[in-house]
Structure formats: C-alpha cells, structure tokens
C-alpha cells in the first residue's frame, strides 16, 4: 500500500517514501544511487513536489484567510461585499471673486475643479485625483484657464477627506466581520455598514434611543480619523435620514427611525514630560520627534474608536495611557528616561467619554 503525500512534504520526504514503496513490492530491486530506479525516484519526486506546491497554492486561493486580493474579492462577492473604492477629497477654496462652477485649478501636481458655491468668494473644490493624496496640500492654487479679475486663490481646509481604495487586509477583516453580525433592516450592523462606507466617513458609532423612544444617534469620525466638518455631518444626515423628512424612510434608515448624525468630539490633551536627556541633547533636539510620536499614538486611539465592532466598545471611551506615551518616547535617540508624565496636569491616565477622541494640546519637556 502506498503512503499518501502531505501537501507540505519535502523533496527528501517524497524520495524516501517512493523508495520505500518500491522496496515493499520487491526488496531485491537494485536501489543503489547509480541505479535506474534510484534516478527515477529523483525525477519523479521533483515533479511531485512541484505538483504539491501548485495544489497548495490553488487551495490557498479559495480560502479567505490566505487568498490574494483578486481571489478574496471573488470570495467576498458571494456575500455581496466588495472593496470600497477610492474617493476624491473635497476642499474649501477662497477667492477674491466668485469663480465659475467647473473652473479648474492646480497645486503642484494635483488638479481641482470647482463644484459648489458656499458663499461669496468661497467654494467647494474636488480633487481630480482619487485617494488620500488629495487631503495633503493646502495653499495658493493657480487657474488652469484664465479667469478675468482673479487676483488670488487658495485652498484653506479639507471638508470631506478623500480615501484610498480599501486595503486588502482591511477588506479581509471586514469579510470575516460580516459573519459575526448580519446587516439587516436598521440593526446596528446595518447602520455601521452603510454609513461606514459613505464618502469621507472613517467610522461610526450607533446609539439606540439616544434622543428618546424611536430615535437613533449616529456619531461619525472622518476618514482621517479626526473630528468631521459640519459639511460632512450634513451630507451623512441627508443620506441617512434627511432632517425635513425624519422618520419617513427616505434615506438609508428604515421608516420610523428618527436618526440624528453628529460628529465625534476632540478632547485636548496637554502633556508634561519630565525627561532625562543623553549628554548633548535637550528639548529642542527631540521636540519634533516627540510631537510626531504623540500624534501617531492619538491617531491609533482615534482608529480604535472608529473600528469598534461590538455594543460594549461602542459605549466605552478610549483611554489615553501615560505608559504608552513614555514607552514610545523612550525609543527616541537622545532620551534616557521619562518619569512623572502628566496629562492635563495629572499623573493619571485619561479615559475619554464615548463620543470623544484625543487631540494633542501643549507638549512640554
């Protein structure tokens, strides 16, 4: 009887198994290294190990935990899921005159088109390049075609952040999350799924009866994991449950659900550091790196807020931990030790309320 091959069998394993199978049929056969049978097992084992590797690769293609992007998309399509497409950033533009809708401007390598008027001399511009790149630049812009009497023009704020196409691993996790809760008829998963994929939204928390019986509260964060602009809040409100028709089921919310959309708040955290420096170093030498690390930590907490997936997480606040700040800063060149770090004047961690994320305030060291 032959021994079945494992998909993880090595060339040496296969060769040994094949020789044993041959020997079991006739122990008198010549299996010395120079014999034809010995050489035949070598060639056959090479072909078999290649076949097993191909089979293993094909099996990996069809399971969601190992599938590359193309096949993960095909697998997820069976559940009605597909990666979120890249979206275009919308920015506030200010001009010395009213410019025509549709006029185009450039800033470095990016182009922007005027799509909507806010007020006199203020317009919404859309970046023509999809993705988060459109969020990165503010400042003077140049008209692509001549505009009479235009003296100056500039981008002053990101109103609705652009988003890159959903990453493979994020999409993979969303696929697995879809088995834990079904999106249906205005349940929590339904709101999270529909609102979470709206343009410019980075995450949403859902609150039952927040403003009384029959009401639903949605608190959103923008795609940059910051406090959303009022424009983004208003657009999400219009899509979910327009204010002039609340409870009528005109938007994505079911009929009789009176939905109110609000934005996550930002709590300013001032950080006081008591740093022991390496010889030759002082606060000005490490300040920029310290601020960057604190910003990165606060962004992680904002992402944690945005990506909460259970009822309990939705109703708990993120915790700004002194130990996390100190541990990350101790990795910086020039810092030997940190003790007695204070957050807003206290040596305790700060637990924010369930609708707030941290924002860096004054940092001193």
Question: Can you give a write-up of this model?
Answer:
This protein has four domains: 11-62; 90-160, no CATH class; 181-263, 2-Layer Sandwich (GMP Synthetase, Chain A, domain 3), CATH 3.30.300; 266-364, no CATH class. The protein has helices at 11-25, 36-62, 69-77, 168-180, 188-196, 230-240, 283-306, 311-314, 322-329, and strands at residues 90-95, 104-107, 110-119, 122-127, 139-140, 142-143, 153-160, 201-208, 215-222, 258-263, 265-277, 319-320, 335-343, 350-351, 356-364. By secondary structure, the chain is of the alpha+beta class. The model has no long low-confidence stretch (mean pLDDT 91). It has a seven-stranded antiparallel sheet with strand order 5-7-1-4-3-2-6. A three-stranded mixed sheet has the order 8-9-10, with helices on both faces. The longest helix is centred in the first third of the chain and has 27 residues, at 36-62. The protein is 33% helix and 26% strand. It has nine helices and 15 strands. It is extended.
Sequence-ordered SSE layout with sheet pairings:
Elements: H1 11-25, H2 36-62, H3 69-77, E1 90-95, E2 104-107, E3 110-119, E4 122-127, E5 139-140, E6 142-143, E7 153-160, H4 168-180, H5 188-196, E8 201-208, E9 215-222, H6 230-240, E10 258-263, E11 265-277, H7 283-306, H8 311-314, E12 319-320, H9 322-329, E13 335-343, E14 350-351, E15 356-364
Parallel strand pairs: 9-10, 11-15
Antiparallel strand pairs: 1-4, 1-7, 2-3, 2-6, 3-4, 5-7, 8-9, 11-13, 12-14
Helix pairs in contact: 1-2, 7-9
């Amino acid at each position: 009887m032959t021994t079945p091959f494992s998909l993880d069998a090595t060339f040496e394993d296969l060769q040994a198994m094949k020789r044993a199978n041959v020997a079991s049929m006739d122990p008198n056969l010549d299996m010395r290294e120079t014999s034809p049978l010995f050489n035949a097992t070598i060639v056959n084992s090479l072909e078999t190990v290649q076949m097993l590797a191909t089979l293993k690769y094909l099996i990996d293609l069809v399971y969601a935990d190992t599938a590359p992007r193309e096949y993960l998309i095909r697998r997820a399509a069976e559940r009605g899921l597909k990666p979120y497409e890249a979206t275009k950033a919308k920015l506030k533009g200010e001009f010395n005159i009213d410019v025509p809708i549709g006029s185009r401007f450039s800033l470095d390598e990016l182009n922007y088109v005027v799509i909507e008027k806010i007020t006199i001399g203020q317009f919404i511009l859309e970046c023509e390049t999809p993705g988060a790149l459109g969020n990165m630049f503010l400042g003077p812009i140049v008209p692509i075609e001549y505009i009479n009497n235009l003296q100056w023009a500039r981008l002053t704020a990101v109103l609705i952040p652009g988003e890159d196409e959903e990453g493979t691993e994020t999409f993979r996790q969303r696929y697995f999350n879809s088995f834990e809760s079904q999106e249906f008829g205005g349940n929590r998963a339904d709101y999270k799924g529909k609102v979470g994929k709206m343009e410019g939204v980075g995450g949403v928390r859902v609150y039952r009866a927040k403003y009384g019986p029959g009401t639903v509260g949605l608190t959103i964060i923008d795609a940059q994991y910051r406090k959303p602009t009022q424009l983004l809040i208003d657009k999400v409100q219009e899509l979910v449950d327009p204010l002039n028709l609340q409870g009528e089921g005109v938007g994505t919310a079911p009929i009789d659900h009176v939905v109110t959309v609000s934005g996550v708040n930002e709590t300013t955290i001032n950080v006081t550091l008591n740093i022991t420096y390496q010889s030759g170093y002082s606060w000005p030498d490490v300040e920029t790196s310290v601020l960057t690390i604190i910003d990165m930590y606060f962004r992680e907490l904002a992402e944690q807020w945005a990506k909460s997936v259970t009822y309990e997480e939705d109703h708990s606040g993120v915790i700004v931990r002194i130990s996390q700040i100190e541990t990350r800063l101790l990795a910086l060149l020039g810092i030997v030790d940190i003790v007695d770090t204070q957050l807003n004047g206290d040596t305790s961690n700060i637990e924010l309320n369930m609708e707030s994320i941290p924002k860096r305030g004054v940092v001193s060291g």
